[in-house]
Every structure is written in C-alpha cells, then in structure tokens.
Amino acid sequence: MEGCELSIKPKCAAGVRTHTVCVVIVSAAMTRVYPVSSTAPRLSHNPLHNLSMPSPKAPPPIYQLRIALVGIDPPIWRQIHVAVTILLCCLHDAFQAVMGWTDSHLHQFEKDGKNWGVPEYDEFNELDLIDESKTHLAEVLKAEGESMIYVYDFGDDWRHEVVLERITGMNDAVKVPICLDGARRCPPEDVGGVPGYQDFLEVIFDPDDEERKHLVGWAGGPSMPKSST
Fold first, then answer.
1. What is the 3-state secondary structure (H, E, C) of the chain?
2. Cα separation of 185 and 219, whole Å?
C-alpha cells in the first residue's frame, strides 16, 4: 500500500539565552552581550533568519467506498476507507480481503468502456486491459457519487458496484485500507454466480434436503449465512 509521512524539524540558526543580568544572542555571524535594558538588534543580515521552513506534507485525501455485489438481495456489502493515492492493484487486494474472496480467479475493473487489470493474463489481448499497477484510484473515480464495476471470477461473473461515497481529509494518513462496516458473508467460491448462489441458499436452509449436509461441508462448515433473506 502507498502513503508516507514527512516530518520536518526546523533548525535554529541562533540561540537566545536569558540571564538575570544580560541577554546573549549567538549566531554564526556574531556573538554579543547586551544589558537587559538594551534592545538587541535583529539579525536580519543573517540569511538564515530570512528562510521560511517548509511545512510538513499533508496526508492525501481519503476515499470512502461502498462495495456491493450486484444482483443479490439483501445486499452483501462493505464500506472502506482508502487513500486517494492507492493503486488499483492494491485496491483489488483490499476488496478480496474485506469481501472474503480467496483471489483464486481473474479480475478486472470497468468504467465508461475502459478495463483495468493485469495485461499479462490477457494473452490474446481480447480485453484491452489498462495496467492496474500503474493506475491510481483517483484517475478512475474523481468525484463523490461516481462508480465503477469490479469483476471477480469471469466464470461466476461476480460483479461488484464500487461507489465513491465521500472524499474526506484526516489528521493521519491511511497507510492501509480500513473496513468500516458491512453486511453478510460473501458467497462460496465456484458456487455458480448469482443463480448458483440462490440455489445454494435454498438447499442449505432446507433441513430436509438431502444435499444440505454435503453443501454445508463443501462451503466451509457450519459458518453459513444466518438467513437467505
């Protein structure tokens, strides 16, 4: 993930020491002692006094994204914070983690007729992919309310709508994506897309179905969705 903090500590060119009798001003140009009643001259001739220190670099803005699987109701969704500077390849990793996928299949991002992904996987150049490792999220989503599609597993065709809900600033940089909220477990891998998932739910919530035990075990055990509705 991208993002760094720059910490700048200004260096003093002159020191001021106080004493009950006098004030001492020390600089590279001169050292003099003045009585307390005297007014010490400003060292404007010293070029170091006229330098303005650079301000610390502000952290990049934060994108608040909502990711939801298309075609499933009630929705399976997540809400995350990411830095505006995040690359699409890193955003893919974040989506896999927060949704619960296993990154076992190909993927791509889609918006306005353009596709971003891993060009090496497009052996026959059929997808006309733009390299996701060279594209920042801010180049694709630029304003609040804009959206794109994240596709995972071209066989099951899991389509996620990604909406830029809010652009905000924070006191600290977001070095890694942060999951804020969400609902429902993602479908099992290779279940057959939206139609296959609906069939899967009907079986596992029917205690009399002979296939129930097999499908529950195949999908990872008893940690199943609490309801199909």
1. CCCCCCCCCCCCCCEEEECCCEEEEECCCCEEEEECCCCCCCCCCCHHHHCCCCCCCCCCCEEEEEEEECCCCCCCEEEEEEECCCEHHHHHHHHHHHHCCCCCCCEEEEECCEEEECHHHCCCCCCCEEEHHHCEHHHHCCCCCCEEEEEECCCCCEEEEEEEEEEECCCCCCCCCEEEEEECCCCCCCCCHHHHHHHHHHHHCCCCCCCHHHHHHHCCCCCCCCCCC
2. 12
Low-confidence ranges of the chain (pLDDT < 50): 1-40, 43, 223-224, 227-229
Domain ranges of the chain: 62-183, 187-229
**Locus of tokens 């052996």:** 123
pTM listed for this prediction: 0.70
| CATH code for the part of the protein at 62-183 | 3.10.290.30
